[in-house]
Amino acid sequence: MNYNNTVLPSKQILYILSYKSSLKKSIKQLSLRKVDINFIIQDIIEYNRFIRSKDEFLYLKNKRLKSIQSSLLKYNKYINGKGCKVSHCFNDILDIRVFLEEYPNTFPEYFRVVDMREGKKDDDGYRDIHLYYQKDAYHYPIEVQLWCGSDIKFNIWSHTSVYKYVPQEVGLKLRKLYDMGKIKTQIQFENKLKEMMERR
Q: Which terminus of the chain faces fewer neighbouring Cβ atoms within 10 Å, N or C?
């Protein structure tokens, strides 16, 4: 694996790339149920226009802007959740992926750290650390994903195969096989995924 993106984005860059919501309220406090999704969609469209004009974005490696379709899928997933806030649902309109040989022990103070090296609450095999920067309560968060060591391959394979849209227990079984050394290539991963799905 070529670790070609090994530097966390600076606070200055994240500040420049931050986009203010048009909702004129704290999106940390605002419930999804009290928001017209059309306002969010328009924000995402404007955010895309805004950020593509920034040199800081153009020179970033391994970055991604969330599509409208993907944003709507996430919205529909979260809208009926208890107490879900706008900033939680739309915390990754911009995300940046950083590859490292090992996970760091410390992080810059401008990040909120979500450690998923032992898995998510609903474990689907995905492992990483998410770092969130939010300029203030009115700006959308920016997500930085840290993929390190042996987690890199598995995360890449799982994202390539879009398996996060299959039941989480399938992902967890694949992860256990990967950790045991029984899945060593992407082809083996995809074949085992297909086999598991056919059995369901």
A: C
Question: Order of strands, edge to edge, in the sheet holding 142-148?
Answer: 63-65, 94-100, 142-148, 128-133, 112-116
Q: How many CB atoms lie within 10 A of CB 117?
A: 12
pLDDT of 6 higher than 70:
no
Q: Per this entry, what is the length of the chain?
A: 200
- Give the Cα separation of 148 and 128 in Å (integer): 7
pTM metric for this prediction: 0.90
Contacts of 180 (CB under 8 A, 6+ apart): none
Helix axes 168-179, 186-199, angle to 10 degrees: 140
